[in-house]
């Protein structure tokens, strides 16, 4: 087999990085899919070797590489474990890009399943539009408010269409009224002595169905002396697009966000979603061949902060109420492995009056949410989640805290699958902190 143009693109995009892997195997114990599937092709070093072989034209990109790459969670725990700092994320995303590029060019998507077509429409038409996402969120609020969900769940109509969607519909958090939503372009004054101006990134899923967490985030920032600006022209961060190989679309979204946040003149750009934050902190990697944008992206990256970092830096928070019971924490992979934020969430949770913090064994292991991985690969995702819930049970925690919307929904489903819904709750860290500060 000779190198075709797609193999050559893969060679240009990823071969040099792939060659830095010495195949030592230190990544194997860190990889959730290798542990659950037991195949070398589902390990980081196995996937890297397949990328090299595909780039050399020795194997077929679609037949031999696409599935192993698609089954990767992209948690990037392997990067932390790697003794020689192989940039697995760069290799993984390059492979995704070339696989998607070939599928689009050869019109494989036209002949693909309805699931793939729907996925592409959602990524390219729904997520880039704040207006459409908010409309979807508002319709979901009405659906919950009038009690339609009871009939839907009883009939199991969603399960008949999609078992994963049916499972996740049951554990959606109660949405806040659209009338309590913040507005894009709005500015919130500090509630204490002003320390700085920050620009807030609400995200897409967070904005659509978890706007309460975003509202509480804004109020917490106000409590520690922040003037909070919500840039008007911002949009989706592009993380889901990058993970599915739509790099061109992700780059368009990144440029729009950089421009929107630059105009805010804020000192920090704050987000509360580990996956979004990881994407925002790697914007500069999208502009290898655009020097001007690369410099602007670097400046953007340097100002990007997770909410927990800002609260620790500008705190302490005005904690007033006690939280009864044991709290444990499930790391967001992208917050921990990409952004390097590990201590701040734990520091904040340990500071809560009345609460007992217990560290979960293997809290750094992926919960298998993986963006939309749990929808595309439900059974594999559930194997990993069920094992995660066994670790959670051993803490005897009544509250499982997360820092990412996908992780939050995944852990809520884990609680449901473990029949613990009457004993344990999964919440975003912002919800815990806001309640102990007396913010509802």
TrEMBL record:
Binds 2 [4Fe-4S] clusters. GO terms for molecular function: 4 iron, 4 sulfur cluster binding; glycolate dehydrogenase activity; metal ion binding. InterPro entries: 4Fe4S_Fe-S-bd, 4Fe4S_Fe_S_CS, Cys_rich_dom, Glc_ox_4Fe-4S, Helical_ferredxn. Its cofactor is [4Fe-4S] cluster. The keyword 4Fe-4S applies. Its EC number is 1.1.99.14. SUPFAM superfamilies: alpha-helical ferredoxin (SSF46548). Keywords: 4Fe-4S, Electron transport, Iron, Iron-sulfur, Metal-binding, Repeat, Transport. Gene3D superfamilies: Alpha-helical ferredoxin. It is an enzyme of class 1 (oxidoreductase). PANTHER family: GLYCOLATE OXIDASE IRON-SULFUR SUBUNIT. Component of a complex that catalyzes the oxidation of glycolate to glyoxylate. This is Glycolate oxidase iron-sulfur subunit. It comes from Pueribacillus theae.
């Amino acid at each position: 087999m000779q190198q075709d143009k797609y193999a050559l693109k893969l060679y240009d995009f990823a071969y040099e990085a792939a060659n830095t892997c010495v195949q030592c195997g230190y990544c194997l114990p860190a990889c959730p899919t290798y542990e659950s599937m037991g195949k070398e092709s589902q390990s980081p070093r196995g996937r890297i070797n397949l990328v090299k072989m595909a780039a050399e034209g020795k194997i077929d990109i679609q037949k031999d590489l696409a599935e192993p790459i698609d089954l990767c969670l992209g948690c990037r725990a392997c990067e932390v474990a790697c003794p020689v700092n192989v940039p697995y994320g760069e290799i993984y995303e390059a492979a995704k890009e070339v696989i998607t590029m070939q599928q689009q060019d050869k019109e494989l998507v036209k002949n693909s399943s309805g699931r793939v077509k729907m996925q592409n429409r959602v990524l390219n038409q729904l997520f880039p539009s704040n207006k459409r996402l908010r409309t979807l969120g508002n319709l979901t609020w009405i659906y919950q408010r009038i009690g339609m969900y009871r009939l839907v769940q009883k009939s199991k109509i969603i399960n008949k269409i999609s078992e994963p969607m049916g499972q996740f519909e049951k554990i959606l958090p109660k949405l806040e009224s659209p009338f309590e939503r913040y507005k894009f372009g709005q500015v919130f004054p500090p509630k204490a002595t002003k320390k700085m101006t920050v620009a807030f990134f609400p995200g897409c899923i967070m904005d659509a169905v978890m706007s309460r967490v975003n509202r509480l985030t804004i109020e917490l920032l106000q409590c520690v002396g922040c003037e909070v600006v919500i840039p008007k022209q911002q949009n989706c961060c592009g993380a889901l697009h990058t993970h599915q190989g739509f790099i061109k679309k992700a780059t368009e979204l990144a440029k729009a966000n950089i421009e929107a946040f630059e105009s805010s003149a804020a000192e920090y750009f704050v987000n509360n979603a580990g996956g979004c934050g990881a994407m925002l902190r790697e914007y500069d990697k999208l502009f290898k061949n655009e020097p001007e944008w690369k410099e602007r992206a670097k400046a953007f990256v340097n100002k990007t902060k997770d909410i927990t970092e800002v609260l620790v830096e500008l705190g302490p928070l005005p904690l007033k109420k006690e939280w009864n019971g044991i709290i444990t924490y499930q790391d967001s992979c992208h917050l921990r492995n990409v952004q390097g934020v590990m201590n701040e969430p734990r520091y904040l949770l340990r500071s809560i009056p009345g609460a007992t913090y217990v560290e979960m064994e293997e809290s750094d292991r992926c919960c298998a949410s993986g963006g939309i991985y749990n929808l595309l690969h439900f059974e594999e995702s559930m194997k990993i989640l069920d094992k995660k819930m066994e670790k959670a049970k051993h803490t005897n925690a009544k509250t499982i805290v997360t820092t990412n919307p996908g992780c939050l929904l995944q852990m809520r489903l884990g609680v449901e699958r473990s029949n613990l819904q009457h004993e344990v709750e999964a919440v975003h860290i912002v919800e815990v902190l806001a309640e102990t500060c007396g913010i509802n």
